[in-house]
Amino acid sequence: MVCFIGEPSYCKGIDALIDAIEILKKNQKINAKTVFFIPKIRLLRDREKLKEIYEQKLIKLIKQGLVLLYQSVKPEYMPIFYRAADIVVLPSRLLANILVAIDHLMSF
Question: From CA 2, how far away is CA 84, in angstroms rounded?
Fold first, then answer.
């Protein structure tokens, strides 16, 4: 399981993750057992022009069974996600978001 932590926004790199999933699938580097968990929050609210493109891509990946959306999770339950995941994706286009990575490391 691959778990994306954070709001699905441009600043958090959700567009890069969606593109990466498509590339991995195209190159047959992922299979039906690979599932990407992404929070079910308003997608790309910070980039309305990209929103429509990535919503369509995300819907396609959901239908293929590669992505599952999850409801917002309280911070105290995040360690459960961290420990259950094989890979935790903590993308950010901002250097200030290092606290999420530290939270992840402290959950072990």
Answer: 9
